[in-house]
Amino acid sequence: MSRIEVTVRCYGAVRERVGERSVTLSVREGASVADALAALAERSPGFDPDDDLFVLRDGEHLSVEERRTSELVEATTLSVSDPVGRE
């Protein structure tokens, strides 16, 4: 199966845990957003994809379920941060 590249932009505490503002990942074609977050965790041990996260795919918010079922395409941009305003 071929591979595609996606960009993950990291904000706030996620950026601190990942150690970079932006990361380009190579994932298999047909991978889900959850797969990309797991790949990010493999390269950044301080990042946990099971944390409470706010995730956008090309500017659209994704629920936890949508992250599992939403397929990535070439040049997708994910934006990942900790949720804001939660106590």
Short description:
The protein has 87 residues and is an alpha+beta fold.
Q: What does it look like?
A:
The protein is α+β, with helices and mostly antiparallel strands and 87 residues long. It has a single domain, classed as Ubiquitin-like (UB roll), CATH 3.10.20.30. It is built from three helices and five strands. It has helices at residues 12-18, 33-43, 64-69, and strands spanning 3-10, 22-28, 54-57, 60-62, 77-81. The N and C termini lie far apart (43 Å).
Question: What are the defining features of this structure?
Answer:
globular, 87 residues, 5 strands, Ubiquitin-like (UB roll), 31% strand, alpha+beta, 28% helix
- Largest sheet data: 5 strands, mixed
Please estimate the helix content: 25-40%
- Overall tally of structural domains: 1
Shape: globular
Strand content: 25-35%
SSE inventory with pairings:
Elements lengths: L2 E8 L1 H7 L3 E7 L4 H11 L10 E4 L2 E3 L1 H6 L7 E5 L6
Parallel strand pairs: 1-5
Antiparallel strand pairs: 1-2, 3-4, 3-5
